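re: the backbone from monday

yeah here it is again, tokenized this time
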């Protein structure tokens, strides 16, 4: 079950982190799913609407806030593109898969 290791590692990392909500978890899991579909590349280049669809999130504001939180808390590195025709880069830490 090596494909579940990044998610398992994330759950271990957030165990004592009270800042993390179910929305953060859903987005992180969606990012991992998207990454798997993209051949486990690091970084992934993604549009918010692609990740929101996987995570079942309808609010772009919620998505962006939670992704910025995950970046600020050190779980991912997020580089927004600020260009609607170019996806943002999201880096995973090497221990995350």
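seq for it, each position gets an aa:
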């Amino acid at each position: 079950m090596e494909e579940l290791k990044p998610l398992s590692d994330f759950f271990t990392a957030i165990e004592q982190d009270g800042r993390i909500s179910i929305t953060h978890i859903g987005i992180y899991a969606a990012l991992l799913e998207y990454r798997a579909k993209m051949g486990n590349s690091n970084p992934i280049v993604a549009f918010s609407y692609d990740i929101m669809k996987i995570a079942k999130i309808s609010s772009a504001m919620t998505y962006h806030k939670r992704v910025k939180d995950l970046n600020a808390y050190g779980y991912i590195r997020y580089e927004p593109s600020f260009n609607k025709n170019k996806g943002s880069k999201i880096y995973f830490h090497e221990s995350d898969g």
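The CA atoms of residues 22 and 28 lie 10 Å apart. Helices lie at 5-14, 22-37, 48-55, 60-72.
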